[in-house]
Amino acid sequence: LAAAGFEDLDLTVLHQRRSEKWRRYPADVLPAWVAEMDFDLAEPVTTALREAVDRQDCGYASAAGVGEAFAGFAARRHGWQVDPSRVRLLSDVMSGADAMLRLVTGPGDGVVINTPVYPPFFEHIRARGRTVVQVPLRRETQGWALDRTGLEAAFAAGARAYLLCSPHNPTGHVFTAADLVQIASLARKYQVTVISDEIHAPLTLAGREHVPYVTVGPEHGVTLTSATKAFNIAGLKTAVAVAGSATMATVLEAIPESALWAAGLFGVLASEAAWRDGDAWLDELLVQLDTVRGEFGRLVAARLPGAVYLPPRAGYLGWVDVSALDLGPEPAEVFLARGKVAVGRGLDFGPPGDGHVRVTMGTSTAILAEIAARMAASAA
Ligand SMILES: Cc1ncc(COP(=O)(O)O)c(C=O)c1O
Questions:
Q1: What is the pTM for the complete model shown?
Q2: Is the CB of 233 under 6 A from ligand 1?
């Protein structure tokens, strides 16, 4: 059953939101492209923000409570013991990835990513003058798998860093403990730094467990994460980097002060509240996300025959292979033009995204049904 508080959404109210999700397209387009949810915020988050406004508290952010709050959350949710002094405040995960690439790789160096993958991974690697090395995930009947042989070949060929997306966007794949141990062993052997983007980790759904990378490969590992994806506060601009070892803590120390000042105080306060007091809301959210991932499977089977969708093991992104529907080189364009539904463009995620779209399912089952109906109408 869907969680009640998450089902009561009104599109007229949602369209009043001022974020990019609701502003990019005209009002007759239903937005399901960006990784943002439609639900109301968790009560601890709204309270923290209201109290900040009441205190007239709009100065630069202090990082003072961030390490402790994150460490508490990591221990409760992932059984991960984090030393708060190894936690570094950032404005967002991607600026952390960029800073790490600059610090641990040189011009032209190879950086491994598992395509299809979150489009800014390509942009940041290229913008820094590094080389994208693709090791595609393999699609199997029931889910996705890491190509360990391909990974070793990429490391052996000289890649210096691995930008791991764990859990993985857009497939929702949750890497197994065995995979991560193998990654750590290869990283050790070939002296590769693993930059593990774990922004979707709190959204790991029933049936899988997230293993924080630095718990298996601390020496050359850094985890980048935030409360923003799970608690839907991306616009508040707050994230953390967690060093796996003293060596990596020294690397994090080299991130310029300006990166810390880029975090916003409202984001820090909201993230601390989410990490400290958000468990009950998050548990209910996970029930809702479990419901919508199943519901979307039924909708795809009934309304988009021929499309292939493997429900995510974490998160609320539906990665759908619609190549059998013959919608041309970029199906997202067809869904937008004909169905007035905006979904993610497959090729933005790299060549394996050909014939695919990414659908944001973090909404009510009614809105999800409308998304599917609009897709089906475009494909008819
Ligand atoms: C895997 C992944 N990393 C990073 C981000 C963006 O995070 P931030 O806004 O903190 O840079 C997203 C957003 O969807 C994401 O899916």
A1: 0.97
A2: no
